[in-house]
Every structure is written in structure tokens, then in C-alpha cells.
Amino acid sequence: MTGSGARKERDGEQKPKQGHEQEVSAGTIALAVGILLLLLVPLAGKHMTHLVASALLLALAATSFNLLFGYTGLLSFGHALFWGVGGYTVAVMMARFGFGYVESVLAALVMSAVVGAAIGFLCVRHTRIYFAILTLAFGQMFYGIAVKWDFLGGSDGIYGLPRPFNSLELYYYVVLASVLVSLYVLRVVTRSSLGLSFMAVRDNAFRAEFLGIRVKVTRLQSFVISAVFTGLAGALWVLLETAIGPESMFWTHSAEFVFVTLLGGPSVFLGPLVGSFIYAFLADAAMSLTEYWLFVIGAVLIGIVLFFPHGVLGYTLERLGSRRGAVDGDGR
Amino acid sequence: MDLGLLAAQVFNGLVYSSILFLVSSGLTLIYGIMNVLNLAHGSLYMLGAYLGITVVVYALGGTPLAYLVAFLVVPPAVGLVGAVLERTLIRRTYPMGEEYQLLLTFGLILVFDDLVKMIWGAAYINFPDPNSFLGGLRFGVYTLPLYHVILILLGFSVFFGLWAFFGRTFTGKVMRAAAMDREVVEAMGIDVNRVFVSSFFLGSLLSGLGGISAGPLYTASPGMGTDIIVYSFAVIVIGGMGSIGGAMAGSLIVGVLRSLAISFYPQLEIVIVFVIMAAVLLVKPTGLFGRPEFERR
Q1: Which residue in A57, A55, A77, A81 sits closest to A68, CA to CA?
Q2: Fewer Cβ atoms within 10 A, N terminus or C terminus of chain A?
């Protein structure tokens, strides 16, 4: 029993490990090809460059949203507020105070963190539907401020900002680099002990507390990290569009983050990214075909909920028979 | 502060409260009985307004009788749409998490918004003013438009009607029982599925009634559903989710405060509602009249 048993055990240990390595290398190749394609995007013309840049920023916001939703188990229905805080901070710093875009983006990060900490502090007292409605209320509150406050341009918003380098192509690479670095940072966070404690709180807050995890503090940490990266996405988006309006904080924009996350799959780290690209290209195609493109989006959303509740990427990975470990987010 | 203006704004606020109550009582009823938060509830309100304009203007030429017919026909038609949605789509999300219900019903909003644009166009549509044939009620120097007065009375009548329905009738009691314990109700030999369809029918009917009531006041537009739904959320959160009395209290608070803000502090029009909503959620998450069992699940 001694020798063969030990070997068996070791074999049993090694087998999934080999599968893991294979998967990683396949994933790495896919990732490398993806990044290469992203680097070549400006060759495909201005429309495509703009489209991919928007998709990348949506992906960053949705991945940050999913840190809170898929990993920490808190559904925010007001996340566009941080997008708006980041965006309006940049717009105000540049248009009202004449700062450059680097200082403005840095200020946007600070603002998002401060607002995220304040609102998060109030919101993490609740979970489930109450958390969703509370975040919705804060989102609408900020929308209401932006619509009515002349300093922020009222319902017209702030427009006519300069785009960095005066070049869409060069700015595209700024966006690409920022998003890739941010996604890498978020990936590191989810893999860290902090990320594990997010998941522990999500799966069983009661048990997590007994393990010494401070549940509300953990939720707040997730909330603030999520707010900062969503704010960054909004800040970079303003420089892409060279304008921002209050509708960027309306609750339907928050719902868009939820949508693309579920479209791709909340249980996989790159799910929101995949969902964002599918959404951006689907919306672009639908828009060129019909003025009723939101009808198409709505119908797709209904279909996703009914037939692919784990999202496109989640479904694909399940189909490929990937180990459970690859699905480390929600997994419900 | 001018007292006449204040009184006028409170009156306008009560009219808006009444509309809010019709919509949010339906929303809170469906949530209370079935634990479903239907985002598309606002779309049914919009549908009520558009079906209303169709019956009143396109079918019957804007006569006073047309209004009467529309008020009798449109709400049940919207109720039917709600019941069909429950049967075909929403029912399938019950085994999933509530986030999937929110998403599916958000998908419905997008579909409804564009459907309305396809059928009726994207422009705002005005109803013929019902006060032109209804006239007004004179109170000394003031004349109150009769249609507005009727709406206020309608809101309160529906409130008492619902109170009697849930307190006195067998069907109403069954619905309340189903909210408390599905399994026991089923064990009593009652078809719970029928209870669910009925509550969706009733809730959607109320939203449709709100829509056709609001149409002549605020015109019909494709974005009206997404606007009213967030206000209705505020109402039922403030009053307590699942409580009809709470919906009434919340509607009065939101309707009157918003109306006062519009004329005295216009910058606060939107913000004030959500500040109150957030404050209530933070201090007393079950709302003014909510029962704690709704948070436990």
C-alpha cells in the first residue's frame, strides 16, 4: 500500500496540474494574439479605432464592476456614477481650471477613490436587493446633481475638450496601455489574499467573519478598488469623446455594465471584457442596420438570461470541460 | 413665500402623488407577493399612455366619451400584457438570482422603448386636454381643473379599493397568504401559479391606469417609463417594500416634495427624492411601513 499508494496520490496530483499548464499556455496564446490584434487596430481606420477604444474602456469599467459583483457578491446598480465622477473630474479640471490631462486623470482617480469610500461606507451595510437599490439611489442622486448644476454644464454637459496629442491613433495606444495595465492589476488583486477574502465574503459572510475576515471592511475595499478603476475608465472615455453629459450617470448606463458582465460571464475574470466587445460590436452593427438597435440589444439580453445565464465565455469554458478552478468568480 | 403659489404647488404635487401611487402600488404589490422587482413596470406605464392616446385620439376622435372608454379598456389590456410577460418570460427567472430578474426586465425595457418608437414614433404626443370639456371647480378666486381633481380622487379610491380587496375578499386574502408562505397555500389546494399571474395582472393594470392618467398631463414620450420607474422605486423604498399603505405614504412624500422643489428650489428637483430614499434605506431599510420579513429572504 505504501509505495503504490503514494505514487497514485502523486499521479492524481500531477494530472490536473498538467491540464492546468496546457490551459494556461492555450490561454496565453489567445491572450498574445488578442493583444497583437489590439495593437494593429489603428490600421483599420478611425471608426474601428474609436469603437475598440470605447469597448476597451467599457471592458475596464465592467471588469471593475465585476470585482464587486462576481467576486464580492454585491450587485451595484449605480456604478455609472463612478464613471461620471471620473469623467466630470477630468472635464472640470481641464475646461474650468485649465489643467493638463495627466493632472486631470490623476485627480479623477483621487476623486473616484474619495467618492467611492464615502458612498461605499454607506452602502456596504446592506446586501442583495437593498444594496442594488441603494447604489441606484446614489447614482440617480449624482445624475440629478449633474443635470441641475450649471458648473457641470447642466443637461448639455461639458464639451469641446482637447484630445491628448490631437490624434485618435496615439490616444488609442494610451487607452490600450492603461486598460491592459489596469486589468493586470485587477487580476493580481483577485489572485491575492484580498481577492480570496472577497470571495469568502461572497460565499458565506457569516463563516468568513469567524475566520477573522472583517466583512464590511472587505466589502468596502472591494467597493473602493472597483470605484477607482471605473472612474479611470470614465476619465479616459471623456478624453476619447472630448465631451461628457449627465446621461453618462443615468441608471440605464449602470445597467449596461451589468449587462455586458452577464453577457460575457461574471464567473470568469475576462468575462466582462468578452461581453464588452460583443456588446460594442453588436451595437455598432445593429446601429448601422436599424435605428431600433436597442430593441436588438434588449432581445439579446433576454435571450442571454434565459439560455446562457453563465455568459458567453462562461458557457464556452463549461463546454470545453474546463476545470472548476478556471471559474473562480461567481460560479452560481 | 407666496401662499397661493404654495397651495398650487401642493395641489400639483398631489396630482403627481396620485399617478405615482397608481404605478408604485402595482410595483410593490408584485414585489410583496412574488418577490419580483419588475424594472419593466415603467414600460407598462408607458404602454398605458400610448394605448390611451390610440383609443382616445386615433380610434375615437378625442371626444369625452373616448376618454371614458379608454379608462375602461386600456388598464385591463396592459394588465393582460403583464400577465403574458409573467407566463412566458419572467416566470422562467424564478429559480435564478434576483439579478437575473432585474436583467431580464431591463431587456424588456429596451424592447418596449423601441417598440413604442416603431409604432408611435419618437416624438412627444399630446393628448387633447380633458379639462377643455371637464372644466374646473371654483374655490373663491381659485379654479381647480376638474381632471386633476378626479385624478387625486382616483388615487385615493384605488388605495381604499386595494385595502378592501386585500382585507375583505377571499382572492385578496389568498394573495396575501401566498406572499407569506407559498407552500402552505399550495397545501391548501390553491393553484399558486394562478395567484402569481393574477398579481401580475393586477399590478400591471395599475401601472397601465397610471399611464393613461398621466398621458393628458405630461404627454406621452418613449423615455417616460425609465423616468417613472426610478421614482416608483424611491416611493416603495421610502414607504416600505411590499406595503400598499407605504406606497401611499411614499407617493405623497415624493410627489409633494418634488413639486415644491420644482417651484422653490429647482436645482433640487431630482436630487431631493433620492436623498430621502438613500436616507430611509440607511436609517430604516424596511421603510416607513415595511415589514422586516421582506429583507430576511
Answers
A1: A77
A2: N
Neighbouring C-beta atoms of residue B156, cutoff 10 Å: 14
Residues in chain B whose beta carbon is closer than 8 A to a beta carbon of chain A?
37, 89, 92-93, 96-100, 102-104, 106-115, 117-118, 226, 230, 233-234, 237, 266-271, 273-275, 277-278, 281-282, 285, 295
Q: Which three cell numbers stand for residue A305?
A: 438570461
Asked whether residue A68 is assigned to any structural domain, the reply reads yes
- pLDDT category, B66, cuts 50, 70, 90? confident
pTM of the model: 0.83
Residue of B99, B117, B285 lying closest to A75 (CB–CB): B99
pLDDT-based confidence at residue A221 (cuts at 50, 70, 90): very high
On whether residue A304 sits in a domain, the answer given is no
Task: List the domain range (segments joined by +) for residue B246.
Answer: 3-296
Show the beta-strand stretches assigned E in chain A: 158-159, 243-244
Quote ipTM for the complex: 0.83
A6 inside domain = no
User: Residue A328 pLDDT more than 60?
Assistant: no
Domain of B275, CATH number, reads 1.10.3470
Are A81 and A142 within 8 A, CB to CB? yes
Counting the structural domains of chain A, the total is 1
Contact A294 B97 (CB under 8 A): no
| Domain presence at residue A13 | no
**pLDDT band (50, 70, 90) for residue A44:** confident
